[in-house]
Design a protein that fits this description.
disordered N terminus, about 0% strand, mainly alpha
C-alpha cells in the first residue's frame, strides 16, 4: 500500500512540475520580447561599438538581468533572417549572464545558424569571444576549454568552411589552451581588466 501511495505522490509531483515548466515557457510572448528589443534599440541609437554602451540602456539591463526567461525568444530572433545584425547582437549580449551549459546550447544553435547563413562570422565571433564583459564571461570558453561541451563546440566550429583565418586561429588557440596560458602570463605580469 505504501508503495502505491509513493508512486502516486511522485506521479502527482512530476505532473505538477511539468505544468509549472510549461507556464514558465509561455510566460513571455514573442511580441513582448520584440517590444523590449525595439525599446533597447531606441535607447541605444543605431548601433553600439562598446559593450559598456549597451548597459546604458535600462531596457537592455532589464533583459540581461532576466535573460533565462527569454532564451526561446532570443533563439527565434537569432534564427530570423529578417532581423538586423544589431538586434541579433543585442540578443547575444543580453544572454551573457546564463550558466555555461545553457550558453553552450545557445552557441551550438548559433553554429547551426552560421552554417545556414542566418548568422554572420562577426556575430559568431561575439558568441565565442564576447568582449567588454568581466573576465568570467569574456573568458568563459577559454577558461573552460577542457569542458566536454566546450570542446565539442570548438571542434564543430573549426570543422566549418569559410571562417576567416583570424577567427579560425583564435578558435584553435582557445581550443588548445594556448589563449588561457597567454592570458595567465599577462595577468602574472601585472595586466588587469
Amino acid at each position: 500500500m505504501k508503495t502505491i501511495t509513493i508512486i502516486f505522490a511522485l506521479t502527482y509531483f512530476c505532473n505538477n512540475v511539468r505544468g509549472i515548466e510549461q507556464k514558465e515557457v509561455s510566460i513571455t510572448n514573442p511580441s513582448r520580447f520584440d517590444s523590449l528589443l525595439t525599446q533597447t534599440e531606441k535607447e541605444l541609437g543605431v548601433c553600439c561599438d562598446a559593450t559598456i554602451q549597451f548597459f546604458s540602456s535600462k531596457t537592455f539591463q532589464k533583459i540581461y538581468d532576466s535573460s533565462y526567461m527569454y532564451i526561446t525568444d532570443i533563439k527565434m530572433v537569432l534564427s530570423d533572417s529578417k532581423q538586423s545584425n544589431f538586434r541579433k547582437q543585442i540578443c547575444i549580449y543580453v544572454v551573457q549572464k546564463v550558466d555555461l551549459k545553457t550558453y553552450c546550447i545557445l552557441t551550438s544553435h548559433c553554429i547551426d545558424l552560421y552554417k545556414k547563413k542566418l548568422l554572420n562570422e562577426e556575430l559568431l565571433d561575439k558568441v565565442f569571444f564576447p568582449r567588454g564583459f568581466k573576465s568570467s564571461i569574456s573568458m568563459r570558453f577559454i577558461s573552460n576549454y577542457k569542458n566536454k561541451d566546450v570542446a565539442i563546440l570548438f571542434k564543430s566550429a573549426l570543422a566549418m568552411k569559410g571562417l576567416s583565418k583570424n577567427f579560425r586561429q583564435r578558435l584553435k588557440s582557445a581550443q588548445s589552451g594556448k589563449a588561457l596560458r597567454e592570458r595567465q602570463k599577462m595577468e602574472a605580469s601585472g595586466y588587469s581588466e
